[in-house]
Protein 1
Amino acid sequence: MPRPTKCRRVQYPPDYLTFKPAGVPARQLHEIELTLDEFEAIRLADLEELYHEEAARKMNVSRQTFGNILSSAHKKIADMLVHGKALSLQGGNISLKNERLFLCKDCNNRWSEPLGTGRPRHCQSCRGENISRIK
Ligand SMILES: [Zn+2]
């Protein structure tokens, strides 16, 4: 019987789900799939610069598993950069709320946007552009 894989926690889903080299039609490109747990591993280790142990705890996986996820992610990104491939973010064994939360610093309005729709340009209430993502 296959061992059920534990759900990996992803705290901060991506704003953008596809990337590709500029000026090349998508159909001419090979596409790499970066899973959302790989994305989260990169965010925690490379951007927030957490120690692997702490990042693993945040994702609810062992340190060893975290290392494996991270090196798989690095390899895919290197492949994309070096060979000029497209990258799409999808899948992975994750638990995730399918929305992101934004805050307007001008009028204090908070609202949520579904995952994968890009970053909003302005506040839904006052149309101000002084917004930030809070979740
Ligand atoms: Zn506002």
Note: The helical segments are 36-47, 52-59, 63-83.
Protein 2
Amino acid sequence: MPKKRTAILWIRNDFRLHENPALTEAASFDELIPVYIWDEGNSNPWRPGEASKWWLHQTLKIFQKRLAELGSDLILLKGSPHEQLLHIAKKSGATAILWNCSYDPSESNIVKAVQKALHLKVDLQWFQGNILCSPEELCKKDGSPYLVYTPFWRNFLAKYSVTAATKSKKLPPLPKEFRAIEFCVEDLNLLSHLSWHEAFHKYWKPGEEEALKKVRNFFKKNLNKYDSYRNLPDTEGTSMLSPHFHFGEIHPQQVLRMIADEYGDLKKIRDPNIIQFMKEILWREFSYHLLQHFPKTPNQPLKEVYKDFPWKKNEKLFTAWTKGETGYPIVDAGMRQLWNTGWMHNRVRMITASFLIKHLGISWQEGAKWFWDTLVDADLANNTQGWQWTAGCGADAAPFFRIFNPIMQSEKFDPDGNYVAFWCPELKNLPPKWIYRPWQAPAKELAKACIILGVDYPHPVVDHRVARDKALWNYEWMRARQGSKARK
Ligand SMILES: Cc1cc2nc3c(=O)[nH]c(=O)nc-3n(C[C@H](O)[C@H](O)[C@H](O)COP(=O)(O)OP(=O)(O)OC[C@H]3O[C@@H](n4cnc5c(N)ncnc54)[C@H](O)[C@@H]3O)c2cc1C
């Protein structure tokens, strides 16, 4: 009898059956061992944060069930990937290990260790993960990376064509020696001992089926008004797909295919709502492109001049920001939305990030770390790009001197004050005119709304004008320092 062909399917960040090239390839073996390895000793500062671990816990459970429905299972292990893979390969006699790439900069070290430990023993095969084009594929003519978004998007659109859908319907069985063992997600101890994340169940349903349902719903109800509503945080103006994309529960290719099925050739679409939605999905690709080409950017500014920026350490102000107690209602509403739901609207991410960086003078890296721990969609590529963009030090970034005025931003994007009233209910009885600036409200209005400033809601932690001037001063100081360095 010919020897059975056994493979290991190493699950990284692709918790879906559709559009999963490693899984599709793995289906052709006689026996298959799908495995997820939680690298708990990993010293990477960007290992999943607390909110991400909550999502991971849920999605692992769901994915394990999905694989069981196809005749397989998900083996759950703790430890370093190369050691665990070597151990399973030896135990099972597997001749191949297949996986989809994750694009984290620590990936190359992990993969190098796997290659070193296993390449002589088994065939290693890796496939494209949950991005549309590999970061090397989409470069400028001279091979250098894009630093500006619009040509990146144009080049993508010119080159991209929608591919046929794939989905595995049946998987090979586990080898006998693995069948009797029960693997429980709980044993990975992913959930924080704080009960904080329990509320996330109210807002989120992880998993591939939920992601697909969400896209269909979004297409039916909101896509046709995306361009006008996407900036309004109190509406359901955006898809809220970001954690599903991050965990690979849905592939952006599936979303573009759905658009093509409904609206035809992507290159010929003229509807600004659909174009804008595709552009946002491509911002994600742009972030991955940048992270691959500039792997140090999670910790260092892309524009080197910003290394000299005179950031301030201030525990008290930072804590006020994290707790949503800065006295600026739109900032506080955003930070409370984040803490309560594990997510924040994109417009408000920009406002809160800008406030930390420019009004409080605290470094974008500190803010990025807080987001990293508290966002269910925390994504190293998007988070890095979002913070560097806001700080002015990233690719195609907003200039530093464009300082968001939190009051004007509120008036423009939350004109009725609904978003602020929802997340800062102590202010809900103030009329829209004062809800964004309670410190300027006449005593009569405050009394009518039953608010004592400093008791029911904080006084502003900084004065907008003073903070703005200080930020601009710091910026000019940094530039002058660069100039004097260049002259030396
Ligand atoms: C300071 C800051 C930090 C951020 N951190 C993250 C993060 O950790 N993870 C994350 O996924 N996004 C991050 N973003 C980008 C953006 O805020 C979220 O992707 C978006 O709010 C998710 O909501 P949605 O799914 O409803 O988006 P939609 O508007 O429905 O967009 C669809 C998808 O496109 C992608 N997308 C949308 N906007 C952006 C953008 N500006 N940059 C990159 N991709 C985008 C996302 O994958 C999103 O799910 C950050 C932005 C800022 C300003």
Note: The CA atoms of residues 327 and 460 lie 4 Å apart.
